[in-house]
Amino acid sequence: MKYEPVIGLEVHAQLLTDTKIFCGCRAAYGAAPNTQTCPVCLGLPGALPVLNRRAVDFAVRMILAVGGRVNRESIFARKNYFYPDLPKGYQISQFDRPIGEDGAITFLEDGSECSIGLIRIHLEEDAGKSFHPENALDDEASWVDMNRCGVPLIEIVSKPDIRSPKQAGLYLTRLRQTLEYLDVCTGNMEEGALRCDANVSIRPIGQTTFGTRTEVKNMNSIRGVERGLAYEIERQSKLVESGG
Fold first, then answer.
1. Helix-strand-coil split of the chain, %, nearest 5
2. Torsion over CA of 49, 50, 53 and 55, rounded to 10 degrees?
3. How many CA atoms within 13 Å lie on the side-chain side of 56?
4. Which of 75, 96, 15, 83 is nearest to 43 (CA)?
5. Three-state helix/strand/coil letters over 158-204
6. pTM to 2 decimals?
7. Residue 174 contacts by C-beta under 8 Å, 6 or more apart in sequence?
8. Are residues 171 and 105 in contact, defined by beta-carbon separation less than 8 angstroms?
9. HSE (CB half, 13 Å, CA atoms) of 80?
10. Residues 6 or more apart from 202 whose CB is under 8 A from it?
11. Which label site among 100, 133, 177, 180 has the fewest CB atoms less than 10 Å from its CB?
């Protein structure tokens, strides 16, 4: 290979709380659409969020398990974007002062210990879910289920230390095992309890500066992450070879 991939993963893990992060609505999976909502998670005017203490406890548990640092002060921020399943027009997340930083995920690769560093672990709320049903009366119609709005998440952001799709799969496997062992997340990727975004670039072997990065979004299986990364690495290699 002429090129070395540089990969960093952003993993969203749904916390195993009974209720949502800022209100008392149920956070259970599989309820009938739009039956687990209230003025807070629907973003109605005048609604006041109250932080779920158990979500904080679960985040701290994960930070300590990976050897990270729990910050004495963390701050929530507004991540502004407009999409039908985000009723407030912004997501409550954390930016410059997350609840936790540093730490690592350690696993065995071909009999040798490998450690992937973490940049941060932060708390945030989930958005709703859009559907594009084939049997809709209008081909351009989308349906929205707001049940997932406000479900508590932690986002676990790795350093760009991963160097192959296989290594990414091993990292995700150990990360999911850790979340399940701590009983803070079901780890069920089919239900969206664990979702992965991958940032990937390539560079000539021996080069220290990073190449142009792309992001592969919302992959919901470890095998899917491995295949998506392999495809993107090959695509980028061909693009660079052709002068792109």
1. 20, 30, 45
2. -10
3. 14
4. 83
5. ECCCECCHHHHHHHHHHHHHHHHHHCCCCCCCCCCCEEEEEEEEEEE
6. 0.93
7. 105, 106, 107
8. yes
9. 0
10. 3, 4, 5, 6, 211, 233, 236, 237, 240
11. 133
Query: How much is the average pLDDT of 77-98?
Result: 94
Check pLDDT > 80 for residue 58.
yes
Q: List, for residues 66-84, the tens digit of each pLDDT value.
A: 999 999 999 999 999 998 8
> Which pair of structure tokens corresponds to residue 176?
């999911």
Rounded-to-integer distance, Cα 42 and Cα 87, Å: 6
The percentage of the chain sitting over the pLDDT mark of 70, rounded to a whole number, equals: 98
Question: How many other C-beta atoms can be found within 10 angstroms of the C-beta atom of residue 58?
Answer: 23
Residue 137 pLDDT:
65
Q: CA-CA distance, 42 to 128, in Å (whole number)?
A: 10
User: What's the CA angle centered on 153, arms 103 and 183, to 5 degrees?
Assistant: 70
Burial of 243 (0-12, 13-18, 19+ CB in 10 A): exposed
**118 backbone φψ class: left, alpha, beta (φ>0; ψ -120 to 50):** beta
Q: Please, what is the average pLDDT of the chain?
A: 95
Q: How many helices (H) and strands (E) does the chain have?
A: 3, 12
Nearest alpha-carbon partner for 157 in 107, 197, 113: 197
The amino acid occupying position 93 is S
